[in-house]
Amino acid sequence: MDAKLTLKLDKHVIDKAKEYASSHKRSLSRLIESYLKTLIEKENRQADNDLEISSFVKSMQTGVKLPADFDYKKEYGDYLAEKYK
User: Fold this and answer.
1) Which of 14, 20, 34, 70 would be 66's cystine partner, CB 3.0–4.6 Å?
2) How many domains does one find in the chain?
3) Contacts of 24 (CB under 8 A, 6+ apart)
4) Does some domain include residue 34?
């Protein structure tokens, strides 16, 4: 069910937002609605902290534990230096 909402925004922002919406073939209302839905969903995901991990991603687990201070760039650099000696 759609409902009306009145907002007070800077005229320049409104004009630029209308141009953006028009260039993406959407109405400004739908653009704002989509943005607000994204904010709400993002907050809900963070609150849930129960992200579902696909079985494919789970199958890629190696069980290797790395130290918190592991410098992967240095290690990779060392690996390449050794490989191309």
Assistant:
1) 70
2) 1
3) 31
4) yes
